[in-house]
Amino acid sequence: MTIHQEVHLKGSPRNIYELLLDSARFQAMTGGRAAHISPHEGGEVSMFGGDIEARNVELVPNRRIVQAWRSRVWPEGTYSIVRFELQADGTGTRLTFDQAGYPRSAHAALDEGWAKMYWEPMNRALTHH
């Protein structure tokens, strides 16, 4: 199963790239739950107070973030691949998002969760940046 979403976000690709990889900004954007995000390829990521764990697989500054990403409640060793592709689009950025390799039972929660936990808070954060 896969998730494919395309969203238009306020702010430049650079703003969005930095927001996704800056622990303090991400933590503020997501309501203050602890985030420790390595800005380096191969680096470890922990978000939402440790509920989400990830590792940066590929980082192309201001263009692409690929992470091996998992929820703490998934079976041990289960990782999905998430890909954020950023492209300047008019006054903002077109973000193309793909996720593959997650447990089937998680599909509905993930499909809704990206908008609620990422795109909407990102637009709010980028508007006030």
Automatic annotation (TrEMBL):
InterPro entries documented for this protein: ASHA1/2-like_C (IPR013538), START-like_dom_sf (IPR023393)
UniProt cross-references to Pfam families, sorted A to Z: AHSA1
Domain Activator of Hsp90 ATPase homologue 1/2-like C-terminal: 12-122
Domain of life of the organism encoding this protein: Bacteria
Family as reported in the entry's similarity comment: Belongs to the AHA1 family.
Protein name, per record: Activator of HSP90 ATPase
Native organism: Aminobacter ciceronei
